[in-house]
Structures are given as C-alpha cells and as structure tokens.
Amino acid sequence: MRIVFIGQKGIPATYGGVEKHVEDLATRLVNDGHEVLAYTRKNYTSDKMTSYKGVQLISLPSIATKHLDAISHTFLACLDVIFRRKADVVHFHSIGPSLLVWMVKIFKPRTRVVATFHSQCYNHQKWGAFARFFLHLGERMICTIPDKTITVSKSLTDYVADKYGKKTIYIPNGVEIPTPKEADEIKKWGLEKGNYIVTVSRLVRHKGIQYLIEAYKSVDTKKKLVIVGDGAFTDDYVQELKDLADNNPNIIFTGNQSGDVLRELFSNAFLFVQPSESEGLSIALLEAMSYGLPVLVSDILENVEIVDGIGFVFANKNVADLSLKLREILLVDNTVLQESTTKLKDVADKNYNWNNIVKEIETLYKA
Questions:
Q1: What is the pLDDT of residues 92-104, one digit of tens each?
Q2: Residue-number span of the structural domain to which 157 is assigned
Q3: How far apart are CA 197 and CA 270, in angstroms?
C-alpha cells in the first residue's frame, strides 16, 4: 500500500508525542513492505532530508506562528496529496490538522482516509478562545468525516461515543522494550544512576511542570530534579519555570533531548514523574515504564488507564499531594519499588507493544 501521513511536524522526532508516534509507525510500515510518505515542516525537519529509514519525506513551508503553523502546513499538504500524489490511504494526525480532512475526502473520493485522535488539544492552556473554537471544529471533523477514526485511549473512545455517537477504533500509542544505557553523556549535568527524578515533556502549561517544581522544592532530598524538554511557542512559560526554580543547582533544565542522551536519562533515573493536567496517551510515560522506572502520575483518566493501579498517583494540580507522594516514594523500600516497576514494564510490553499495534493499524488500512 501507499500510505501518506499528514499533521505531524516531521520526522525523525526531536520532540512531540505525535511526531514520535508517526516516526515509529511509519518506519515499521516501511519494514513491512509498504510505501510511506510523510509531510514535514521546514522549521522542524531540514528540507534537505528527503528520506528517513525508508520513509519518503516531503518538505513544505508553513507560517511558523503558534496559531498558523499547523493549519497552513496541513493546507499545503492537502493540496499536494490531492493534485500530485497517488495514495491508497491518507492518515491524518490530531484534531487541529483534521480541520481540513474534508479536502481529501471531497477531491480524492477513492482514497481511504484515516485519522488518529491523539488528544483534546483545546484543553491546553496555551490556546485562546479563537483557537479553541477551531480545535473543537477539528474534533467534530475527525470524529465524523474520515472512513475510520482511531482513538489512542479508552477514555477518548468513550468520549467520542458519548458526544458524537460514533464508534472509533481503539489503538493506543506504542512503545518497545529498550536496552538500557549506562550514564555517560549525562554526567555533564552531574547525573548518575539513581541520583535524580526525571520528567520528559514539552514545556507548555498544561503539562503541569510548575506543580512538580513547587512540590520538589518542598521535599528534603539530595536527588536532583531533571526537566527534559523545551517550549513550543511558550517562551514566557519556560521563563516562568526557570524563575520558579530560582537558580536551584539541583533543578536542571536539559532542553530537548533524543537518541542516546534521552536513553541515558530514562535508563538511570530514580523516578519518572508525569504531572500533566491533560493528555491523550502519554508516550513519555509509556517509555518510562518500558525502561523499568517507578512512575508518579497525576490522576487524570488517561494516566490512570495506563498505570492501572500499579504506579503511584497524586491528585491533579495538587502541589501538596504531589509533595507528599514524592516524600513517600523516597522512603519506600527498594523491594516494593522493584515489584511496581516489574509490573509496569510487563504492562507496557503486553498492552502497548509496537509490533502488535502496527499489525492492528495495517489490518485497519486493509479493511
């Protein structure tokens, strides 16, 4: 099959859960013998890169502002696929880009259209009322127009059924069990195995990093707090976080990391914390589980669905409860932590294994 992906910023993924999802899916589909094309934005993937692990990359410009970056790139991608590409399946990702899914349905009626509903993006605090209106409209489009709609969490599946009366296909984000990597490059930040707590996230307000910093500052520990990620048109929020950290030498901002450095950061952490107010299905959380890390997450449905009573949970947006749970975990016996991490790793391998997920998506395409 010839499969085209629209909606992602680009691949290979340097940050962003959708981008990581598309990279993993696209490269595996190539390995299974499919021809895969993915649109990329010039401000994310170099326009000199024309392929990645067999995936054909089509670089198009965009209006690189917070409100117009995604939709301007998606519009050009839709025009390109309508007038220049043959495709068996066009696969849209996220509700913002899916605002234009109708273009492909109308002008390429013989091409099957699939869309993945990753998250309710309008809940993200960076968007104002105008943007939220169009994101809600994009949600309606993604839930009603494609031939098939994929939802990445059970809570999203239930939400679409309740609001739109549509049965979607539940296929979660995936992860593979990695090979851990000993601390090497991360030593430049003074990090060693077990001496830090880590969170991996875009630095945008709904990810709740402000709660984690406040809670950490109230805990008496020698373990460092490592914040992996950077802003996304949110420079003011990034500065707010750094002001909140107040030059504490034990609070380390690494910026975006990928490849071996990210592997080291996951492999050697004492604890992974996911304090987000809103998620679709957190790939960073799945990755932490796959590395055998204890996890502490906010009690939103999408997080609780994953940890399934095995990980540690705190009340969403509640700094006091987060601080309390951090203290408790720091005092927990290693045997208890090991039992939790073993179960979490098994859950990641059983329920979120990429090999199974790719087969499910291929079956959907063929159907």
A1: 999 999 999 999 9
A2: 2-174+352-366
A3: 6
Q: Of 152, 129, 125, nearest to 277 (Cα)?
A: 125
**What is the Rg, in whole angstroms, of the alpha carbon atoms belonging to the chain?**
20
358 with 312, same domain? no
Q: What is the pLDDT of residues 142-197, one digit of tens each?
A: 999 999 999 999 999 999 999 999 999 999 999 988 999 999 999 999 999 999 99
Kindly state whether residue 262 falls inside one of the protein's structural domains: yes
Nearest to 122 by CA among 280, 338, 323: 280
Interior CA angle at 126 toward 23 and 117, to 5°? 40
Where b means 16+ CB within 10 Å and e means fewer, 225-241 reads: bbbbbbbbebeebbebb
**Are 7 and 140 part of one and the same domain?**
yes
- Of the pLDDT bands very low, low, confident and very high (cuts 50, 70, 90), residue 308 is confident
Distances (CA, A) of 319 to 85, 201, 211: 51, 18, 5
The answer to whether residue 180 sits within a structural domain is no
Angstrom distance (rounded) from CA 331 to CA 326:
9
Q: Which residue has the tokens 């326009």?
A: 47
Residues 358 and 331 grouped into a single domain: no
Q: Do 229 and 143 share a structural domain? A: no
For the chain, what is the domain count? 2
Same domain, 206 and 317: yes
Nearest Cα neighbor of 151 from 309, 298, 364, 315 is 364
Candidates 49, 59, 3, 6; CA nearest to 28 is 3
The enclosing domain of 300 has a CATH number of 3.40.50.2000
Q: For residue 175, what are the β-bridge partners?
A: 353
- Do 97 and 110 reside in the same domain of the chain? yes
